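Minutes, structural biology subgroup

Action item carried over from last meeting: produce the structure token record for DNA 3'-5' helicase (Cryoendolithus antarcticus). EB confirmed the sequence was re-checked against the source entry. Recorded below for completeness.
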Amino acid sequence: MAPKRKAGAASGRPSKRTASGISTPVSVSEDQDFSMGSESDPEDHDVTSKYDKTVEKFSIASSAKKQPPREGHDAASHLFTSLRDLSGEELKPDHHLRPIWLNATSGKVVLETFSPSFKQAQTFLINIAEPQSRTTHMHEYKINSHSLFAAVSVGLTEQDIIRDLELFSKSKLPESIKDYIHRNTQSFGKVRLVLKHNRYYIESSDPSVLQRLLKDPVIAPCRVEETDELRTDVAPKMGQLVISGTKEAAGVREAQAQVARQVKRPEDDDESDDEYGGRELEQDMTDLLRDEDDDEEIDQVHSFEIDGTKIQQVQERCNVELGLPLTEEYDFRNDDMNATLDIDLRPNVQIRYYQEHALSKMFGNGRARSGIIVLPCGAGKTLVGITAACTVKKSAIVLCTSAMSVVQWKEEFKKWSNINPDDIAIFTSGEKEKLNHKAGIIICTYSMVTQNTRRAHDSQLIMDFITSREWGLMVLDEVHVVPAEMFRRVTSKIKTHSKLGLTATLLREDDKIKDLNFLIGPKLYEANWLQLSEEGHIARVQCAEVWCPMTTEFYTEYMNAAGNVNKQFLLSTMNPRKFQACQFLINFHEKRGDKIIVFSDNVYALKKYAEGMTKPYIYGDTSQRERELVLANFQMNEAVSTVFLSEIGDTSLDLPEATCLIQVSSHYGSRRQEAQRLGRILRAKRRNDEGFNAFFYSLVSKDTNEMFYSAKRQAFLVDQGYAFKVITHLNGIDKMPNLHFSTQQERMSLLTDVLLQNETAGDVEDIKDDLFSDRNVARNRGRKALVKRQAGTLSSLAGGESMAYMEYARGSKTNKELAKQRNQFFRKEDRAKERRKKATASMLD
Ligand SMILES: Nc1ncnc2c1ncn2[C@@H]1O[C@H](COP(=O)(O)OP(=O)(O)OP(=O)(O)O)[C@@H](O)[C@H]1O
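Output recorded by EB:
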């Protein structure tokens, strides 16, 4: 079995992943190179070390028993003693039927995927715990206060959670876990943030909670009313589980049938009469699958009004500091104030079961809950957003990261729904459309609505329209890349009843992701990548890390450059053996009929590789026309099977022809970049061909820092169940004709060229990982940098977008001046570009 890789264990000892996804230590001699990455890593998922680390952070109860490793045993086996589970509790007699191991100290839950009740347990766990790792045989989840908040916000009660955990757990649920669940659920769902008649209210059925809030020094000044009295209204009755936008769609029936087919009762082969006997288990499983239709009717609700401009202060105070999260639910079916939008899914639309499932988390009680839905790249987040709009049937605002994305959303709305095209407007720097009817959909870029500077007249009119009215739904696309500060501006300016965040990787290296919890809402659903690929919704991918030994001369220089990160980076990227591996793999996959994308973050390397192999390449400076030409050829010309891309191609590139990725240089340890790059081949057109596999290779120079970063980068994908095969030798490479750098002279000449490069040649391309294409963004973000480069989406490479690469100079005052400066810059570059263009065009002929 190929080893699954990740950074070294926090203990400082190297580790490797087994098929079960549990890390076990390996000896240094067995896996020597892993020791490079063995420094303490906060993201490490090594089971044993993480238990130790989380003891202080996550103390369900200090009384929880913790088993010390037994002498003479490895670090993990004591966790799996025959009669006890991770919590130290005795196993139930029918534990083999129950799929969950629980650790009472850390909140970690290990789920066996081979258990007969795996599917039911997975459905339950996704609601109450954060998935940490989902490999073939074992899943790891973690119960924490956020996940319990999400559970309560999708309608589960403390009793539901405890009962079902008890049901699936191999041992009796420790009291400490019950206490923890009790403590963390009792305050959830107690207070709600409600928008009524364009004004915000804090609402609760328990007036004492509101009185407590009104004594809080942060919240009290946010109240707008003079009187001390609370408002009291009759509480609305909660509805049934219905996704009205989908109820007519054939896909819903299919999805329900599919879910029903998947749900199998655990084998009733254990007739024991104890309290967890087989029959009772079956009964409990049946209960588990019940509709959430037993919501209690609430007689009265109490509320007080708060200042709309201080919403975030109140949210942050309640969610983060008071542990009393504000839930946001929109009773859209009883909203008579806002006009109804005539929109439904087209009758032939088939919603996939996981899309349906995700939406049921949002609309499970007949209201629209705000929160985030996480689906892998290419799994169909757009349709989820559209179905949400069809369900709410009120005006909706969709926020995207680029102008091209805005256009794509508009097209998708027209494709999947029956909306009158006049009821969709787009608002970007290039297009400013108005809504003509009372209700409609407006799609815009984040940058357009968050711009702080003076706007053009037409733009200001639209902005006034957006901010002066109530919206039923706000869809926030790609929530993981948008800075939290931008969300703050969006959510404070636009009054919306519900928010839906969409993303593929709820990952940020800057640790800002937790802000999304109160700015948007809890994570409502996260799909299982491996499961979707097994089902053919996204492509199956073989991932491999190819270890390329450094040539002696390159390694000597690498060691001499200790402390000079850029130089070392360039030497390891330009390692001739890596170049050869890349050449070999391209040759191999082109012969198989694959279409290949080669990624290099470093522009010097990108050009050297691509020009050396006479392949087309695109990076930030490539002109729009040239991009179009290269991509069109890649898609349609059989003679062009490989394209080299810089970091600019990481996201939103929609090239379903691509079936193979090769990564020669990348952005240090970014897990998100790795996942996004993988996303480029997940939507491969050929994914449902029999036996089809896409390929993802990371070329790594052996015994260099690249090995450490590579392991870190893979952590997210390993946690999604992807196995990275390590290839130490490419069979047949030695016999390959025309292999570059096969003579000492060629290698020395390359080395001389690399050493002659100045420091900055070792930089990764300076393109920020946001995708904003409106020029306003640069100004919005301040002018700290003298020159700021900014990427457009790769979809912009396809030609629809006016901007993909811009430069802004500090101190420039007007757009005109900016344009002039850009023009001057580009004029200087023109001649050089013209030469490049001719070379590429002649190559493509
Ligand atoms: N239920 C469905 N039935 C048929 N096709 C679907 C369905 N859902 C999504 N698709 C198709 O899957 C493809 C990917 O969808 P979409 O672009 O929404 O993915 P995504 O999750 O937004 O991906 P990315 O994160 O890469 O942008 C599209 O071609 C879309 O039409």
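Discussion: The domain at 539-761 is CATH 3.40.50.300 (Rossmann fold).
Next step: EB to file the record with the rest of the batch.
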